[in-house]
Each structure stands twice: as structure tokens, then as C-alpha cells.
Design brief:
By secondary structure, the protein is α/β, with parallel strands linked by helices. The chain is built from 15 helices and eight strands. It has two domains: 168 residues, Rossmann fold; 194 residues, Up-down Bundle (Dehydroquinate synthase-like, alpha domain). The strands form two sheets. It has a six-stranded parallel sheet, with helices on both faces. It has a two-stranded antiparallel ribbon with strand order 6-7. The site of zinc ion has 6 residues, from α7.
Length: 381
């Protein structure tokens, strides 16, 4: 087990009817909020009314910045920064899924920066400060509500890159499982697959494979995601399943599930971000295509040990091959695509996808070359 520092300052308020509790928390940090949201789901599920009502009660004025796209884009981030500056916003409030929270993070950092916000993503600048950020999560998937990363697509260059920094941890996030009951099935699936992806990246690329406690945390969270998803797909009104899913997804990428691994490789994400950048596919759907192919590559290059351990603990399988099949079966059961062809992505595009992925692979300092990425993608045809 390797040395590690675990520090996560985000306060979580979890449970039924907690959305309004964000307002008094936000009032401690400011009085003029930029309210960031997406295409309108928060108006349908009541989050918008509850949140704006509670903010008004606290005397917080609101400037709205809506229309955040799934896979948020740089031009919209820049527009949000301009708006926040013009309205002298001193806090940012995000209500929605990972895309909304990520865009809000980029805006929070961009407002306090004299250069171009893309510099944070291209590695030209480091995030030193950001406006205080508060979030109301409505889609369990990315962990953005309790981590310090954000992902934005530069639509001019087709680069889907990430930026990180401790200043990006939300101050407070409210997680009300009932707000997730309006999610379409496909988004339930995307969230489940993404959570599994966050758990497996560290587990399978760890520098140290003898970290029993973290391995067991990963197994437990994966079992919880799989069981909760099964229950949600059967009965979308199952509160306890929604609640377990929501908390599992947060814990899967808040730093807990990699402690002691001493380094990891976000390779499935690097490849997936190329799919999202080029085809605007949902992150979870892209991961469901990449992961089975990558597992097959992992088996060839790293051997069966980790797949056997994970498979035995999570799926009750014996061999590495059975574990891969079990992953694929789970993704299929949720309705996610597991091959490029199922997402209508032509195999002829593989070199282009791999070339795009190399941008992030270099940015993240990972040691992979394009032929290897093409080889992995060829297993996803
Ligand atoms: O835009 P609205 O109308 O809100 O609708 C959204 C969107 O269409 C809808 N939705 C959200 N909550 C809902 C709902 N619909 C009904 N009821 C609800 N309660 O769901 C759609 C997808 O939302 P999005 O935010 O795009 O999904 P997700 O949370 O999966 O976020 C994906 C983005 O996060 C990035 C991904 O790459 C992608 O860009 N990631 C961020 C990470 C991070 N910050 O740590 C890590 C991840 O690995 C990931 O890369
Ligand atoms: Zn992810």
C-alpha cells in the first residue's frame, strides 16, 4: 500500500427534500449568484422552483445561465464567464448533472482568471482560485459534485479535455435521490456505466496491487451500483435504490476509491473522450463501448489476476474471460451500447478516434502510443 493524502472539503447534504438547504449554505459565501443549468430538466422535476424560491428567501439575487449541453462546450463556458462578470456574481450555483456542474466549475475558475479559460484545459495555466461553487445534483454518474475536476469540449478543435485544482471542489453539494426519479432510462444506464468506469480505472491500473482496503471499497461500490441499477430499472420509484446509487456514484470518484494505489491511469476515459469529442456520444455510452475492449487488451498485456479478483468479488465469476463477459452483460442489460457499430460509429474511423485520444493521453502524461489505442478500438468493432 502506497502513501497517500486524502483531502476532500466538500460538504454533502443528502436525502429527501434537501435541495432548499443549499440556499442558506450559499448565503454564507455571497449574495449574487450565477445559476447554471441545462436544457430544462430542473424545471420539470421541481428543483428549479425549490432552489430559486429558497435563494430568494436568503436575499440572493440570481443571474441565469442555462442551456448547458451534455458534453459542455467552451463557447458556452465563455458566455457564462462574461455573464458572471457583468452581473458581479460572487457565487456560482449549479443544478443538474455532471455537465452542468463541470461547466459551472470552469466558469467559477474563469471569472477569477485574466487569461482565456481554455488555458486551464490545454495545460498552459493552473487554476489558483475560483468563485465559491454550490451544487444540486440530479444525475448520479460523474462524481463532479464532490471532486475537483471538470471536463469541457473545445468545439473548434474537437478536444474534450479536463482541468483540475483544489479550488474547484464544490463548497456544498445537496443530493436528493428523489430528484433523480425523472431520469430517462438511458441516463440511468449512462450513470451506472460511468460509476463502474471510475471504480475500475484505478483498480486495474494501480501501481500497487496489494491494497486490500481500497480493493474492497471498489468491490462494494461496484456491487452497490450494479444492484441499485437493477432495482431502478425494474422500479424507477424505488427510493432506497436511487439513494444507494446516488451515494455510490459520488464515492466512486471523490478520491476514496484510489487511496493507496500510488498512481493510476485513466485510459478508458482518455479513449472515451475522443468518442464524445468526435460524435457527441454520452460519456457513459462511450465507456460501455471502450471498457470491454480495454479489458480484453488488459488480459493480453497484464494477465488475468485483477480480472479474476474483481470478477470473483463482484460477479461471482471464476475466470478473467467470465468477468469480462459479466461486465459486458451488465452494460447490455442497462441498454448501453457495447460495440462501436451499436452506436453507429464506423470501424473505418478507428485511426481518427485513436489520433484524437492521443491528445488527452499526452496531456495526462500516459505512456501509450496510437497503434496500441487502435488495437484496443479494433476489439470494440
Ligand atoms: O440538460 P438537462 O435538461 O438538465 O438534461 C440532462 C441531460 O440532457 C439530463 N438530466 C439530468 N438530470 C436529470 C435529467 N433528466 C431528467 N431528470 C433528471 N433528474 O441528463 C442529460 C445528461 O446530463 P449530463 O450532465 O450530460 O450527464 P452526466 O452527469 O453523465 O455528465 C456527463 C459529463 O460529465 C463529464 C463527462 O465527460 C460529460 O461531459 N465527466 C465529468 C467528470 C468529473 N467532473 O469528475 C468525470 C467523468 O468521468 C466525466 O468525464
Ligand atoms: Zn467518467
Amino acid at each position: 500500500m502506497q502513501n497517500f493524502t486524502f483531502s476532500n472539503p466538500t460538504k454533502i447534504i443528502f436525502g429527501k427534500a434537501v435541495v432548499a438547504k443549499l440556499a442558506p449554505e450559499a448565503a454564507k459565501a455571497g449574495k449574487s449568484a450565477l445559476l447554471v443549468y441545462g436544457g430544462g430538466s430542473i424545471k420539470k422535476n421541481g428543483v428549479y422552483d425549490v432552489l430559486t424560491g429558497a435563494l430568494a428567501k436568503e436575499g440572493i439575487t440570481i443571474t441565469e445561465h442555462h442551456g448547458v449541453k451534455p458534453n459542455p462546450v467552451l463557447s458556452h463556458v465563455r458566455a457564462g464567464i462574461k455573464k458572471a462578470r457583468e452581473s458581479n456574481c460572487d457565487i456560482i450555483i449549479a443544478a443538474g448533472g455532471g455537465s452542468v456542474i463541470d461547466e459551472a466549475k470552469a466558469i467559477a475558475a474563469g471569472v477569477r482568471f485574466s487569461g482565456d479559460v481554455w488555458d486551464f484545459f490545454s495545460g498552459k495555466a493552473q487554476i489558483r482560485e475560483a468563485l465559491p461553487l454550490f451544487t444540486a445534483l440530479t444525475l448520479p454518474a460523474t462524481g463532479s459534485e464532490m471532486n475537483s475536476g471538470c471536463v469541457v469540449t473545445n468545439e473548434e478543435t474537437a478536444q474534450k479535455f479536463s482541468a483540475m485544482g483544489p479550488a474547484l471542489f464544490p463548497r456544498v453539494s445537496v443530493l436528493d435521490p428523489e430528484t433523480t426519479m425523472t431520469l430517462p432510462r438511458a441516463q440511468v444506464a449512462n450513470g451506472a456505466v460511468d460509476s463502474i468506469a471510475h471504480l475500475i480505472e484505478g483498480y486495474f491500473t494501480t501501481k500497487d496491487a496489494d491494497v486490500e482496503v481500497t480493493d474492497e471499497i471498489v468491490h462494494a461500490l461496484a456491487r452497490s451500483v450494479i444492484a441499485s441499477t437493477g432495482r431502478i430499472l425494474k422500479d424507477p420509484s424505488d427510493y432506497n435504490a436511487r439513494a444507494s446509487m446516488m451515494w455510490s456514484a459520488t464515492l466512486a470518484l471523490n478520491g476514496l476509491a484510489t487511496c493507496g494505489y500510488g498512481g493510476m491511469n485513466f485510459i478508458n476515459h482518455a479513449i472515451e473522450h475522443a468518442l464524445s469529442a468526435l460524435y457527441d456520444i454520452a460519456h457513459g455510452a462511450g465507456l460501455a463501448i471502450v471498457m470491454p475492449a480495454w479489458f480484453r487488451h488488459h488480459l493480453e498485456t497484464a494477465g488475468p489476476a485483477r480480472l479474476e479478483k474483481f470478477g470473483a468479488a463482484v460477479f461471482g465469476t471464476k475466470t478473467a474471460e467470465e468477468a469480462i463477459t459479466a461486465f459486458e452483460d451488465f452494460f447490455r442489460k442497462t441498454g448501453a451500447p457495447v460495440r462501436l457499430s451499436e452506436a453507429k460509429i464506423p470501424a473505418a474511423d478507428i485511426p481518427r478516434i485513436a489520433a484524437n485520444a492521443m491528445g488527452l493521453i499526452r496531456m495526462w502524461g500516459m505512456k501509450h502510443e496510437q497503434p496500441e489505442i487502435e488495437k484496443i478500438l479494433n476489439k470494440a468493432k
